[in-house]
Specification:
The structure is a homotetramer. Chain A is of the alpha/beta class. Chain A is about 40% helix and about 15% strand. The first copy, chain A, is built from 8 helices and 9 strands. In chain A, the strands form 2 sheets. A 7-stranded parallel barrel of chain A has the order 1-2-3-4-5-6-9. The two termini of chain A are about 10 Å apart. The model of chain A has no long low-confidence stretch (mean pLDDT about 95). Chains in contact: A-B, A-C, A-D, B-C, B-D, C-D. Chains A and B meet through α2, α3 and α5 of A and α2, α3 and α5 of B.
Chain lengths: ~250, ~250, ~250, ~250
């Protein structure tokens, strides 16, 4: 099982995120590419740190919206989204190549991630940009989403994702916003969900119902409170339950 | 002999430059990469047009200064310049790769071009970023500049450049600013300078003295008045004088 | 009757719009404030030109989206929109004050204009920002819109607007997008619509039905093809029909 | 004696600075205006906090350089600097007016501050922008600088400043960069310098020589390590030495 987190979200002199703590426990990093966060120097440093820790590097492209951190839905044309994704993926790839590594995956950020779950046009734009750049990359998204389908159609492998720090509804959908009153993502709670996923393939919904979860990678958000502790808990739980945390299992025909 | 011009300098809905006219006569295009001009869509379109016209594509990285069009000197740290160049070159390369082409060269833009002529630290930063990305790229700059030396030191071939539409002083240096009262770049004048270069290896300075010019590529600025006509005159003069306009002569061990 | 147009939409070296032609015929200018277009220098120049031509100056705030020219819907929080509007209105007011003039009105731009027609929260945010800055300003919007109501609630006078170069549906709503196959905004067609408005208070819808239009100001978009000619036609038609083109009629208790 | 610090330097979700600690001890705040740091929301919040604490609000305009935090020298034309300053001062003034306060002063940020000390053209551009907006504002700068002279020439009062956390050379000039190996700005050291200034009108240079300092306002940088403690030490020392910390002494004819 892979364990991913968003890193490299600083910008200029502004620092943000739990990069150091998370880099020690994850197996793949989603590195911001300068549109919603990150800048060329932050990208270089995040890539160097990931390679040093044996962490696979993914591109984390977002909408061009520094003020909104890429979290605000923008009615961008699919053609523009295609170009935004290609630009950002290629830019990050430059730092990975210069550091002697190889780009591993692409995970859209924030509003782009959310919009590509349901919007077929945007999903196709994202998937085709990734495929045009390098068909051996993978795309992290939710199982069954428009983006997962578009990735397959474009010849790129989608990797289904589980958000360890966000609750599930009974129907299996994720509560991405407004979850705070519903769920307290303590290290214990998050670790228990990962244990359940690894051992049973299900995770309890908010009402306790076990929900089947199709996931090859687990995510913890780097700005969830106590993100470093959550990361350690995820790794410990997964390993205790018998999983190996690695980005290799599904990589390039693995 | 190669003939290059800066293209793809639009931004969002704002258009700029004589792209269509120049694309028909040049052999290599310097495509803006989004920091001083250009945006992902403009990059995609410029790359597509260049490939369609058989024009070699180069990256044209600049300082992050949209308001100043990358023309204002900025006291950026060499480390930052390294990262800015790597980011932009890689981003443009993504569009070239996605279009089935191959990136050909790098030419710094505006203030970055000027500062890298004399500032050894910046020159090394630019050259090492290019070398780290792809050692088979070439760097367009003035013969004898710090950047030419730094390129060689970094293992990247520098390609010496002649500005057909900017006058020379007797000592061989170029008048990059404030040349308007000194020189009228008509198609005739610019064509005559190119003829002289091809036939004699010298170009008359402002006072008429013939000055030896070491150049494998000729440049016309896309915002010099009548740029399209200047481009046609450069090509016609070069060909009449017996030169072939092509980006291939010096490419990758050629 | 007032006649307004968007001006000052250049950015850095990029120029855009039919400012010179329109400035001669309009009575009020909506000046871009740097978020979707315009920059400090463009703002200063547009304000100076407007004052020279006796044209009233309004602020034209937009979303922070240079790449999309402020035309893409963005799911920004009302609190953020409030702050964006206050920032931009105040910044433009600085240039107006420094030039010895007085700010006249506020007209939201592009997607912000459209979203504030229907979204009560955004409309209130815009209106309250304007009111907090200066209650004697007016807000240009469509009659009956959420923004018109919010302006009144905030103690700011809304000025109803008619788009001379955009067709109407039978129900009186404006076709803001995709109108090109439906309507050809020639100077004659646009002039005829203005004549009809002045003489009858109605304008024919796409199917010919006369639709009552509540408007104190008429707008021509500066990037509609032949905008300069359309502007001249609007002014000529309005004056021939007996209207006086002036921003004064509804100004500050007028 | 006035005590000023730079505040409101967050941007989007990125937070920065010791605003809460410093706001309790200073008498005037220099609020970033969005070009090098700050955004409309950060400006609104900083202004509200300052007014709540009885702290005078100043504008802190910088170069348009988020990536460099406005600290990199930029060869901007004086005309552009004039417009940048006017834009930013006016934008901040909007938040101050909307909150029921009155703008108090202008202090250029970073590279703009430094360049205006020595560059007469830039200094005049800054001073004239401030004067054009509101002649009753004051400008914080070093005594004897080009900006101090330009302010007087433009009819705006310059307020001489002392940097409590930066060492002095024997000739009275300030060591703004590379001071770390020379001087350790502990609360004790900084407090002692302020005591010396208040009691003797001199401050010891790096070699111990007492240097006369002409200052009506004292500054602590919000990103000097332990800035909150330094601020408390400055205030305590000044008050123990008999000074009253207030922005009123030199305000508007006071």
């Amino acid at each position: 099982m892979d364990f991913n987190a968003d890193l490299g979200e600083s910008f200029g002199l502004w620092e943000r995120g739990a990069d150091d703590a998370l880099m020690r426990v994850i197996s793949s990093a989603n590195v911001a590419c300068g549109f919603h966060a990150g800048d060329p120097g932050a990208m270089r440093r995040a890539v160097a740190s990931a390679l040093e820790h044996g962490v696979a590097v993914g591109a984390h492209p977002g909408f061009p919206d520094l003020l909104g951190f890429g979290r605000r839905h923008i009615a961008a044309a699919p053609e523009d989204v295609h170009d935004y994704v290609l630009y950002q993926v290629a830019a990050l790839d430059g730092f990975v190549r210069a550091a002697g590594g190889r780009l591993h995956h692409v995970k859209p950020h924030g509003a782009l991630y959310m919009q590509a779950l349901d919007d077929a046009g945007l999903a196709r734009a994202v998937a085709e940009a990734v495929a045009a750049f390098d068909e051996t990359l993978t795309i992290y998204t939710l199982a069954g989403s428009e983006l997962a389908g578009a990735a397959e159609a474009a010849g790129v492998r989608p990797v289904p994702e589980f958000f360890a720090d966000r609750p599930l509804r009974e129907d299996g959908t994720v509560v991405m916003f407004g979850w705070q009153p519903l769920f307290d993502p303590t290290p214990e709670a998050v670790g228990e969900r990962v244990r359940s996923l690894v051992e049973t393939g299900t995770v309890p919904a908010l009402d306790g119902t076990p929900v089947p979860v199709d996931a090859e990678t687990v995510c913890v958000h780097s700005d969830t409170p106590r993100a470093g502790e959550l990361g350690a808990a995820v790794r410990a739980s997964a390993e205790t339950a018998g999983a190996t945390i690695t980005a290799e299992s599904f990589t390039r025909g693995g």
